[in-house]
Amino acid sequence: MGKYGPKDCTKSPRYCNIRTFMLLPYLKTLDDVDFVVAGVPYDTACTTRAGARFGPAAIRDASMLLRPHNPDMDISIFDYLSGVDYGDIDIVPDDIETSYTNIYDEAFKIYQSGVKPIFLGGDHSISLPLIRAAKDVFGPVALVHFDSHSDTDDNLWGRKYMHATPFRRAAEEDCLSMDHSIQIGIRGPIYGSEGLKDAEDLGFEVLTRRKMRKMGLEASIEKIRNRVQGATAIYVTFDIDFLDPAYAPGTGTMEVGGFTTWEAIEIIRDGLKGLNIVGFDLVEVLPAYDSPGQITSCAASNIVYEFITLLALNKKSK
Amino acid sequence: MGKYGPKDCTKSPRYCNIRTFMLLPYLKTLDDVDFVVAGVPYDTACTTRAGARFGPAAIRDASMLLRPHNPDMDISIFDYLSGVDYGDIDIVPDDIETSYTNIYDEAFKIYQSGVKPIFLGGDHSISLPLIRAAKDVFGPVALVHFDSHSDTDDNLWGRKYMHATPFRRAAEEDCLSMDHSIQIGIRGPIYGSEGLKDAEDLGFEVLTRRKMRKMGLEASIEKIRNRVQGATAIYVTFDIDFLDPAYAPGTGTMEVGGFTTWEAIEIIRDGLKGLNIVGFDLVEVLPAYDSPGQITSCAASNIVYEFITLLALNKKSK
Amino acid sequence: MGKYGPKDCTKSPRYCNIRTFMLLPYLKTLDDVDFVVAGVPYDTACTTRAGARFGPAAIRDASMLLRPHNPDMDISIFDYLSGVDYGDIDIVPDDIETSYTNIYDEAFKIYQSGVKPIFLGGDHSISLPLIRAAKDVFGPVALVHFDSHSDTDDNLWGRKYMHATPFRRAAEEDCLSMDHSIQIGIRGPIYGSEGLKDAEDLGFEVLTRRKMRKMGLEASIEKIRNRVQGATAIYVTFDIDFLDPAYAPGTGTMEVGGFTTWEAIEIIRDGLKGLNIVGFDLVEVLPAYDSPGQITSCAASNIVYEFITLLALNKKSK
Amino acid sequence: MGKYGPKDCTKSPRYCNIRTFMLLPYLKTLDDVDFVVAGVPYDTACTTRAGARFGPAAIRDASMLLRPHNPDMDISIFDYLSGVDYGDIDIVPDDIETSYTNIYDEAFKIYQSGVKPIFLGGDHSISLPLIRAAKDVFGPVALVHFDSHSDTDDNLWGRKYMHATPFRRAAEEDCLSMDHSIQIGIRGPIYGSEGLKDAEDLGFEVLTRRKMRKMGLEASIEKIRNRVQGATAIYVTFDIDFLDPAYAPGTGTMEVGGFTTWEAIEIIRDGLKGLNIVGFDLVEVLPAYDSPGQITSCAASNIVYEFITLLALNKKSK
Amino acid sequence: MGKYGPKDCTKSPRYCNIRTFMLLPYLKTLDDVDFVVAGVPYDTACTTRAGARFGPAAIRDASMLLRPHNPDMDISIFDYLSGVDYGDIDIVPDDIETSYTNIYDEAFKIYQSGVKPIFLGGDHSISLPLIRAAKDVFGPVALVHFDSHSDTDDNLWGRKYMHATPFRRAAEEDCLSMDHSIQIGIRGPIYGSEGLKDAEDLGFEVLTRRKMRKMGLEASIEKIRNRVQGATAIYVTFDIDFLDPAYAPGTGTMEVGGFTTWEAIEIIRDGLKGLNIVGFDLVEVLPAYDSPGQITSCAASNIVYEFITLLALNKKSK
Amino acid sequence: MGKYGPKDCTKSPRYCNIRTFMLLPYLKTLDDVDFVVAGVPYDTACTTRAGARFGPAAIRDASMLLRPHNPDMDISIFDYLSGVDYGDIDIVPDDIETSYTNIYDEAFKIYQSGVKPIFLGGDHSISLPLIRAAKDVFGPVALVHFDSHSDTDDNLWGRKYMHATPFRRAAEEDCLSMDHSIQIGIRGPIYGSEGLKDAEDLGFEVLTRRKMRKMGLEASIEKIRNRVQGATAIYVTFDIDFLDPAYAPGTGTMEVGGFTTWEAIEIIRDGLKGLNIVGFDLVEVLPAYDSPGQITSCAASNIVYEFITLLALNKKSK
């Protein structure tokens, strides 16, 4: 049994508590901990709808519903893991340099400690410092990137660090093991044909929505596993707009014709099991646009839950 | 043609009316009636989000859109059936004993009269007195239970009658014909591995979401039909969270990766046709969390419509 | 490269602009133009929820997110087309005669000029004058009709021109080439069995949701292509309630068990490619009932985008 | 004690019931009745936001909270009055002639019976047939008109019967006792200076918001009482946009700088007490634009409650 | 300077943090602390809308905006006080006995330690155990009760402990110093004339909304000060529905014609300054009914802020 | 009669149109124009809630309801003025330098032309370049600043250009005629006592909410007039959070206890009439947090309307 786990809810309901992720202890520690959940509420690099800064708070709120046993995978997470809510990393809105430094520093410290982090965005620009730190600890990482956008623009209006550019930057900076990196679920109108070609030119395998729909879910999962095979360190980034707007309305650049939560969960379970994943992030949840029932935050919290389950399964299988 | 049917809408639109279910007469009668729709707005046994007490009003409001002919099943319901809106059963919030007594008494009276009831919850705790009364009239009933949760906890915080416990209670009280009882769509994080095992230990067949996704819809339907075959009296309970949050955001304990309304309707039609169903309930609609377009209440009203269609088809085939 | 295309967004983001469709120029011109997008905010012929009059404004607002290259179809739209936002056609609420006259006149002028129009409703009653004008320019048109309702009632409360009657009127007035006309996605409770039979008696092929689900998407698409084969002029009308309420909650007469946006897009792409379509409309978006994330307007803008893509592909293939 | 009063709520809460106004019996009767509440869900004469057709249902829903004793006025309403929910008058959307006929006929019947009606709109166009019928029973009536708009336009786009014209029509048709008629709360941008002058030219006293703010509430009330003094029959019409949008956001043509609910209640109580009011209406509640807490419908139901209190006080004082 | 104060926001914005009240440390301690804020999410004693269990979480979320210096009162709170977020008291939904025991125990412990508590409800039933504990520590307390309802019913449906009964119970149990107890803002329809008389018969001074409006704010404040003068220990309970629904839409039993936030703040500041207040609660915030901008939770957090300011001013003046 | 005015709405309703401000022509021209309305959707300098970038679009949408005659001031605006919607100024999110340059350039051009601009934000950081340009054309300007915050912080997290700092910057850069500058409505918790003192030390007169409530509205207006008397050029900036959250919920840093729309309008009319105002801005409208009825955008559009009225009255009086 891990040292830190969710609040015991045998005395009162799950809603009786400060809203940490999954009701884990709120502790900025890396001792006796297998994983941490940390908020990164930076969102001033977004290009359309704003508000992902409130993503961490909303995902934590929705995570109240999560319970420790994952029945599909038949595992009680905290039999194998100890985890805490690490709080938020200090960021400065509209100051990507300072924010990147803070994010990098915290992430570096976590990676080095051997603890597995799950970062809650924030917009997608936060992935760059998270990946930079991973590279500085583990060497270039294989990227498994769930998204409807490649986010490999060179710049927007001359700005090099926007939420549409992190993976070009990461590739340029040799942070990624390109041969093992893959983008999943890409779709939707783009500015020009170079949009997709760019990502491929950088070395990504791009598994578009259309390809996935044509080949089916199982073949898509096979593609992912083949791609990451042999990677020594993997980083997983999940933009909530991978999901269809019906499943995740609370986001900034919705693209219709997306995936269901079940499809997402299946890809995570079968596509990512047993891999050496060194870090995760989940980004672009905008609570102000969510439905009154908060289904986007709920979906996000369940995606994170599957990430944690992967960690527990890995620990168990050792 | 049944004696009581929906308001004639050839004189003015469907929205010109007091909001009874499907614009049926509001009559607390069991004479000349084949089915009744009755609200049971008890919700103080819920463990997370509250507000299912407003479920009956919201489902009635949305049911305004329903029309009497079901084209898929090619039947004009009120050619075969007479039905009324029975109003709500008197309940007392926070007083489950009095509420259970009132619910039991009304249900017993209805069952005894031979009229088929459809109850609108309220939280899932209401199913227990409804099933108790069914058992006292018909003997132990086979349960067909659509839900994402088994609701077979022993207790929560020492409370034996919460919306997470009714089917353990029903089983313990020998209200159910366990050999013919089945739970459908179960999914989502639970407190421990015993969660699912408990339901099976009680004697339920548990058709989890994962099993259903693996075997497909047709095989799932076959499983259901096999299970209920030979049952003399069947009770159907439908927790709206069987549906995915994208389809039913207005509920209390959403579990992602669920079913579409079309899947639900297919299971009802093909899985439940021709059976001797003595009662139905539909529970856990929380209007305060629904989307502005009220899609949850709309889905719920359509599920009820399919229940009524089953009754009409049975009557027709006699 | 077309003369008129979306605003150049290399200087500032897409949200920095007056909300025309896709940030096209707001010009009431037919010169040097391949297609126009025009609003038709008439909605006083609706029979339940009102508010489609705000559909054009909401779809324009959501269309801000659309970009000029369609990656699935590998085409940069404005390499082949010039298009403008034509503004709204003057209508008078509650005065269908004047409105019909205005709509007819504008549509006639557009069709005659050879420009392809895409009309944004408004309720479905607007399709009648749009089709009348098409017939007067091109002769009877083949109708491809996406909807959950046939809209072939004879009248409602004695009213001949309601949003439930346009396609009976169009058929009666010999505006349609019935042998090539098809209704797609029809579903949901109706008043009586004549509901569907009526449409077939008028000569429509009716591809109900149930049939489509049984035969699958590919076979459904084949059915559509077979039906329209040989038609000289095709008119496409798309009621947003073709989509499931989970995907399009912001509409007036939701019918559950509908289609996903991906299914809609697939049908449009594979079912309608290469055809001589003379006009399109998209109707029944009611922003007041949409989710806070505006997913209905977003879906609608993407459907329109696929229509425009069809035009671009046709131009390219010439 | 009146024959008909609200449901007895000593057995179960107020929310356990079909949503009639104040939980009164739903009976289309004029026997043994002092007042009736009747819905008039016609709204196709509105010129901007649509949806007042759902006003009656929403006001009924909110009226669940009303209880029979008005403490400020120290009266138990149903000690003096018997009342029922009369249901809705049949209207046909987009068909003002038929609708006006139906409304007139029902209203005439009610007035003739001596029963006091309170009509729930619907848009403001419904007041015309309601006033016509009043005039045919009682002779020209004094109008007390709460609103932010005079609604005395001659026509809109040539249409004579829109929600901006009823009081010009009523004046032209000699339905009103102009010397005793007054408009209260008028404010907001208009098309031209004739806007206000028109109303005065027709004979109305126009108590604009600005005048009221300058003279204060007491003097305003005095103005009203002076105006209606000597009138034999008074008709009260209350457009919910009399209230400020902060108090009544769910309406169609909001005008800022309006009145609080307390001010409205004070004017009703002190301005209208003891008068021979033959009918009331409350119009322009649009639930689709209301806040999630439904404060507009709540305000509306309380205004109606004050109307009923006036009737009870009159009865008591006899 | 107090030991515990809000997070230092000079390194990153206020939204970068776990949502404790005012970003205070989350510590279940009474050492080195002047005040604690504690959640009491019990709401199963409510009689209409449910959901106050989420009040504490929502108020904490909104309190993010509060800053430590109150300019009107010219005081930097944490120069004088040390405070923490104590978390939530364990309650069991639908089990008022266990909940009351837990609430009593925690409250007793806090009062005894000399720390000043501010409790966040929950429904109004939580005030009873909070007052019982206060009485057991301090003797009968003077009650200053802001509300639109007296909450002095004897029972509802036979239930003695509902959110409409706590102050009758408290009076009966001799927990209150009746000569110094006062109810402020009472208004709205009630079941019968005994409603108000009851409260007076129990010994409360009842300052109804109507009286307050007639005498004005200053005289009302004078009334309050006169009433509490000489009281040795005062308990303040604030039902958010004291405010008008325009200012606090997110509550369960709205009563129109209420007070503005400014009026509430003025009464608190001038009416309660310098008094020996031993405890506060703020109840009946229902986030599911709040406006999208969360103005109710924002108002609630500011009321609590004024309570804390009172404590700081008292400390300063010593 | 001015050359450019709102669309003629005698042919169809106001909602039939592309959403420019007040349905004015969308023209980027300064010829034959008295005033322009221009959007400045920059919001990456905000420190809490994001989303003011969508303010201009939402205010334009709501402005649809405005009509050309202001009855309180008895003036038909376009008898005296010609105005256009100038569109949005190109800004780059997260790049305040480029944005400031663009904003400055456009503003300078407009001021120089003698046209009066009304700028729609955006967050409050946009006022700095707008004021800089004004100073470069007219010399130091007197600032009339409606807000609940002084926005005179030195920096936030080291950032000098945030929405909390513009007026310190403007003062430091000698853009303001301090002797004639005044802040109105300031209220709410601040970080320390220096908060208010800072503004006064910079030379602003600070009319706090508390002072205003104590002295009353008329005296407050007198204060404003006295302050600006003798100023040669005045710039008016209006942060929507000057209004109470009940009146303007859709903003980022709500402060309770604020002003009503009527109070705002009165201050504008009586406080600012006849002055030489060279520019206006209205900032901090966040549509994602507005109520469903969009009352904040509606209020904002009416404030702008009063600004335009001031210009018309000045022109008329010449």
The end-to-end span of chain A amounts to 15 Å
Low-confidence stretches of chain A: none
% residues in beta strands of chain A: 15-25%
**Rough shape of chain A?**
globular
Determine the number of helices of chain A (DSSP H or I, runs of at least 4 residues). 10
CA-based gyration radius of chain A: 18 Å
Which pair of chains has the greatest number of interface residues, and how are they split between the two chains?
Answer: E-F, 35 and 35 residues
Percent helix of chain A, as a range, is 25-40%
The secondary-structure element order of chain A is: EHEEHEHEHEHEHEHHEHEH
Average of the residue pLDDT scores of chain A: 96
User: Strand tally of chain A, please?
Assistant: 10
The oligomeric state is homohexamer
Strand order of the largest sheet of chain A: 4-1-5-10-9-6-7-8
Largest sheet of chain A: 8 strands, parallel
Structural class of chain A: alpha/beta
Task: Characterise the protein shown here.
Six copies of one chain form a homohexamer. Chain A has helices at 55-63, 77-80, 96-113, 127-138, 166-172, 194-202, 209-215, 217-228, 261-272, 295-317, and strands at 35-40, 69-70, 75-76, 83-88, 116-121, 142-146, 182-186, 205-208, 234-239, 277-283. By secondary structure, chain A is an alpha/beta fold. In chain A, the strands form two sheets. Chain A has an eight-stranded parallel β-sheet, sandwiched between helices. In chain A, strands 2-3 form a two-stranded antiparallel ribbon. In chain A, helix 1 (55-63) packs across helix 10 (295-317) and helix 7 (209-215) crosses helix 8. The radius of gyration of chain A is 18 Å and the shape is globular. The model of chain A has no long low-confidence stretch (mean pLDDT 96). Chains in contact: A-B, A-C, A-E, A-F, B-C, B-D, B-E, C-D, C-F, D-E, D-F, E-F. The E-F interface holds E 9-15, 64-72, 74, 76, 244, 246-247, 260-262, 265-266, 291-295, 298-299, 302, 305 and F 47-48, 156-157, 186-193, 195-196, 208-210, 213, 244-246, 249-251, 253-254, 256-258, 288-292, 296.
